[in-house]
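Extended Data, panel c. Modelled sequence:
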Amino acid sequence: MIEVDDLALTYPGGNDIPETQVIDGIDLNVEAGKSVAVIGPSGCGKSSLLYILAGLMKPTAGQVTIAEEPVNRPRPDVALILQDTGLLPWKTVWQNAIFGLTLKGPMSLKQSKRALKELGLKGMEHRYPSQLSGGEKKRVGLARALAQNAQVLLMDEPLAALDTLTKEHTQNLILALWKKHEFTLVLVTHDIEEAVFFGQRIVALSKRPASIVDEIDNPDVGEEAYRQSSEFFRKVRQIRALLTS
């Protein structure tokens, strides 16, 4: 369970630069094993919220707890996937996948092999990031998170810049892995269709300073062919109207 209580974030000013309030009083609960998509205007504070959940930033006020423990530093059971995937260009696919796990023993290495196989990367272990397509790089970043055996997966615009078909294929893959491994998923995106595809609940944020405008239940996530259903497109229209109102 992720619990966000009255969260606020202000960047300090200095040298004639005024302080900037980024987040203003966000309350949010995410049940274990559920998925939430966070969407809002560009620059509204979506990524900052995710970094606070990951323990990489400290809020100005309020608190975040995961599994009833306050978040004040990165946790081993929480994985963050950034837009650029954060792959090390001088390391191979395998070395990137096991990065940070070498001290955790054979079980973690076994999980890494399983993750590469699940993501269709078996046989690419000795390639370098420069030899991979954009979609393959995204999958390596995801494999690293799965190898970590994370209970919470945080994704910040994870599929930006991919072509439509590659994006949809990777979205299907991520959703299948979420259903199989039952990790808690929090996705930040500016893509309305992606938010509707992933989020059992969709949280719409206001412009900066971010506060929650509305929360929309989306219970059909994970159903076969949901992307082609009339309900999917109805939700897309609902979110678009909400964000443009």
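The chain has two domains: 2-77+152-244, 87-150. This feature is highlighted in the accompanying rendering.
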